[in-house]
Amino acid sequence: MSVLSALPFLKPIHLKSPRSLPRGQRRHTLPASEFRCLSPEDAVSVFEIEREAFISVSGDCPLHLDEIRHFLNLCPELSLGWFEEGRLVAFIIGSLWDQERLSQAALTLHKPQGTAVHIHVLAVHRTFRQQGKGSILMWRYLQYLRCLPFARRALLMCEDFLVPFYQKCGFEALGPCEVTVGELAFIEMQHSVQGHAFMRRNSGC
C-alpha cells in the first residue's frame, strides 16, 4: 500500500450523494473532491493553472511545462493535486533539496538524498480562489510530508506580499533568499515536518 492511499486525510472526499437509480443500473461518477499525487499526464493542466496565476502577477512562472514534466517524472510523490469531479483545481509541486538554504540550483534540481522538501509552486485555478483552497491544500500536503520517512523540513521562497499567507500556514521566515529570478527577490520560509515517526505509528503510514 502506498503512503498516499494509507492516509485518511488524502483519500477522496465524497461531498455529494448520488441520486437513486433503478435496480440493476450503475452510476459512473467521479468523486466530488479528491486529493492525489500528480503524474506527468497532469502536466498540461498544471501549467495552464500556473500560467494564469503567475504571469499576470510576476510576468513569469515558477515552473515551465518541461520543468513540470521533469519533476513529475522524477518525484511525483512530492506533488499533490486537488481534483473536483475529475478536474484539477489546485496543486503543489515539490522536490528534495540537500542543503540548509535554497540556492539557484534548487530551481531545477531534485536531490534524492535530501531531507528538505522544496515547494516550487502552489497554485489555485482562478474560478476556485478566495475559497480557502490554498490553505487547505497546504495543510494536507504538510500532513502528508510528515508521513514520509526522509522529510524533515519544507522550504519555499515567496515574494513579500505572500509572507503573511505562508505564516498562517505555519511557515517561519528565514530572511532574504539567495535565489533571484530576473529583478524579483524573495523571502525564504521554512516549516518543520519532524514528528513523522509518531505520525506513522498513529495514522497507518
Automatic annotation (TrEMBL):
Top-rank taxon, per record: Eukaryota
Occurrences of domain N-acetyltransferase (ranges): 33-194
GO term, biological process aspect, one: response to light stimulus
This protein's GO CC annotations: cytoplasm
EC number(s) recorded for this UniProt protein: 2.3.1.87
Signal sequence, start to end: none
Recorded metabolic or biological pathway in which this protein acts: Aromatic compound metabolism; melatonin biosynthesis; melatonin from serotonin: step 1/2
Keywords of this entry: Acyltransferase, Biological rhythms, Cytoplasm, Melatonin biosynthesis, Phosphoprotein, Transferase
Predominant cellular place of this UniProt entry's protein: cytoplasm
A GO term, aspect molecular function: aralkylamine N-acetyltransferase activity
Localization annotation: Cytoplasm
InterPro entries registered for this protein in UniProt: Acyl_CoA_acyltransferase, GNAT_dom, SNAT-like
Reaction catalyzed: a 2-arylethylamine + acetyl-CoA = an N-acetyl-2-arylethylamine + CoA + H(+)
Family, as annotated: Belongs to the acetyltransferase family. AANAT subfamily.
Protein name (database record): Serotonin N-acetyltransferase
